[in-house]
């Protein structure tokens, strides 16, 4: 078999790895995020040119003379090392930092040469590539992919011929038509799925990979393969961008809102998709430096993987996330002209119609506004139907169990609401219905809960119980307002601490003007109107 000269993984040998591991006991450590880990993996695997490392360096890493440079954002996550109170929070130049994955496994050593703000830069020695439990058969280092393409005869030692087609979202019928057209012109196609930072425990990640496999399986007599690469998802593209062998970039305008890696997965969660539509002239790309830089980055990565031309972005007429999500929400059949039946089957299985999915109703309002009364009554009405499993998460009850020990500082109240949101998201993900009734006075945390629930694949309905403060205080069944006015209870919402009225409430109720039965009926009407209840 012919051989080619290429840069393989930039990893130290076993002896050096043992030496670094022993020395790391004295170093500070930095636990990398999933995205940071994917960036480091791309560098160490030889997938992106690194300063100080030639693009073609033979078959193995030759040691310190070729140490690549790496930059990592520390932010507020940098851990203080136990027993080293005099160690600065951000290591100074000359310090070596152990870069670790979430399990504490040391992936590389970073010899810091520059520390600017929250950014560390320096020379990196890789001990190992990050481990991936998901789809090992689809993950290739650049060296491994080149060898596989050689084995298949898709490239030759004298020049690459295969085309990289970047799939940041799904592949629909229009995308497959484009692949078949490329194949008819004699091209071999490698679909590079950007999965940098993907969580192997995230069902949406697996849905996307299953959909890509299902789409490609419909092609016959086409030289095409799928590879997962540790590259971050592309900023939204509304046009296809191609990099040709003549070192020029070509763009073709398209319409629609083809989802990126995260938005494609949102088809399984019912999250609102970005409504961007229409086309953008290629020249407008020059006004978007981040996008232009990413295209250059993708081009260099494609070349490192042995691919001579590149296409990024959706095919003309490929459906967008919003269009597909709307059809799925209403249980409408996805026509083959939009997406292959095999892909449609995966999407329908992952995202059934709204009436078959879970949802959360969260009440928010002042103490005494009537939240608990309405939540309990809503839970009864839903249980009376007999088609819903309901979990009631009342604020006071939750504090006796889930949040026992928390106080009433802003931080503790935020933690309490986030814990409620975590449980509600889990209930929703399992197809159940969660009814929550915390005060939840702060908009930021309420939005976090909404995101958690919608990310779980279900619906979220925020009900603002907007009963006026004077009415709530007049009710004061527990005497809390009286204690707050007397200074016995500090930081009491509505008295000595603010309540941020939601601008994003789906239903607004004033229990001073509306009976509990009428209020709950308005919520049920909302759920029916938006498809979460079907009868």
Explain what the structure shows:
The protein has 535 residues and is of the alpha/beta class. The protein has 16 helices and 16 strands. The chain has a 6-stranded mixed beta sheet with strand order 8-7-6-11-9-10, with helices on both faces. α5 runs antiparallel to α9, α10 crosses α16 and α12 runs parallel beside α13. The N terminus is likely disordered.
Relative strand content: 15-25%
Tell me the helix content. 25-40%
Helix count from the secondary structure assignment: 16
User: What shape does the CA trace take?
Assistant: flat
Described by strand count, sense and barrel closure, the largest sheet is: 6 strands, mixed
Poorly predicted runs:
1-7, 50-65, 79-88, 243-287
Radius of gyration, in Å, reads: 27 Å
Structural class assignment = alpha/beta
What's the total number of strands? 16
Biggest sheet, spatial arrangement of strands: 8-7-6-11-9-10
Distance between the termini: 66 Å
Q: Could you tell me the mean pLDDT?
A: 82
Which properties best describe this structure?
alpha/beta; about 35% helix; 16 helices; about 525 residues; disordered N terminus; five-stranded mixed sheet; 16 strands; flat
Could you give a quick summary of the protein structure above?
34% of the residues lie in helices and 17% in strands. The chain has 535 residues and is α/β, with parallel strands linked by helices.
């Amino acid at each position: 078999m012919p051989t080619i000269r290429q840069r393989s993984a930039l990893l130290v040998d076993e002896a050096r790895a043992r030496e670094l591991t022993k020395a790391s006991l004295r170093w500070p450590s930095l636990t990398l995020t999933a995205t940071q880990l994917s960036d480091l993996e791309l560098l160490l695997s030889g997938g992106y040119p690194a300063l100080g490392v030639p693009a073609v360096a033979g078959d193995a890493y030759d040691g310190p003379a070729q140490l690549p440079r790496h930059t990592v954002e520390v932010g507020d996550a940098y851990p203080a090392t136990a027993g080293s109170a005099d160690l600065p929070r951000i290591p100074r130049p000359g310090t070596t930092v152990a870069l670790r994955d979430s399990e504490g496994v040391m992936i590389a050593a970073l010899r810091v040469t520059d520390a600017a703000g929250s950014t560390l830069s320096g020379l990196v020695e890789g001990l190992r590539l990050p481990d991936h439990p998901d789809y090992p058969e689809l993950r290739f280092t650049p060296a491994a992919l080149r060898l596989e393409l050689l084995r298949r005869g898709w490239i030759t030692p004298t020049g690459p011929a295969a085309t990289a087609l970047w799939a940041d979202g799904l592949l629909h019928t229009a995308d497959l038509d484009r692949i078949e057209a490329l194949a008819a012109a004699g091209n071999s196609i490698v679909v590079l799925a950007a999965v940098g930072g993907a969580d192997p425990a995230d069902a949406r990640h697996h849905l996307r990979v299953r959909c890509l496999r299902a789409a490609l399986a419909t092609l016959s007599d086409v030289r095409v393969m799928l590879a997962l690469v540790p590259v971050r998802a592309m900023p939204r593209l509304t046009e296809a961008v191609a990099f040709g062998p003549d070192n020029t970039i070509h763009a073709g305008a398209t319409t629609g809102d083809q989802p990126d890696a995260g938005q494609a997965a949102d088809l399984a969660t019912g999250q609102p998709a970005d409504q961007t539509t229409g086309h953008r002239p290629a020249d407008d790309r020059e006004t978007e430096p981040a996008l232009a830089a990413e295209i250059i980055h993708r081009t260099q990565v494609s070349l490192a993987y042995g691919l001579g031309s590149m296409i990024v972005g959706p095919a003309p007429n490929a459906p967008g996330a919003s269009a597909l999500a709307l059809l799925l929400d209403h249980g409408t059949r996805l026509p083959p002209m939009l997406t292959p039946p095999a892909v449609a089957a995966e999407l329908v299985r992952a995202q059934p119609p709204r009436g078959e999915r879970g949802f959360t109703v969260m009440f928010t309002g002042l103490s005494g506004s009537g939240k608990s009364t309405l939540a309990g009554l809503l839970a009864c009405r839903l249980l009376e139907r007999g088609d819903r499993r309901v979990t009631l998460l009342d604020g006071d009850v939750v504090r006796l169990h889930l949040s026992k020990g928390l106080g009433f500082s802003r931080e503790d109240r935020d933690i309490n609401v986030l814990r409620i949101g975590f449980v509600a998201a889990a209930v929703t993900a399992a197809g159940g219905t969660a009814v929550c009734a915390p005060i939840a006075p702060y908009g930021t945390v309420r939005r976090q809960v909404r995101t958690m629930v919608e990310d779980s694949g279900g619906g979220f309905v925020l009900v603002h119980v907007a009963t006026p403060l004077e009415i709530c205080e007049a009710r004061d069944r527990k005497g809390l307002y009286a204690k707050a006015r007397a200074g016995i209870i500090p930081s009491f919402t509505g008295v000595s601490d603010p309540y941020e009225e939601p601008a994003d409430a789906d239903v607004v109720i004033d229990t001073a003007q509306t009976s509990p039965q009428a209020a709950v009926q308005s919520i049920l009407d909302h759920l029916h109107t938006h498809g979460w209840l079907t009868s």
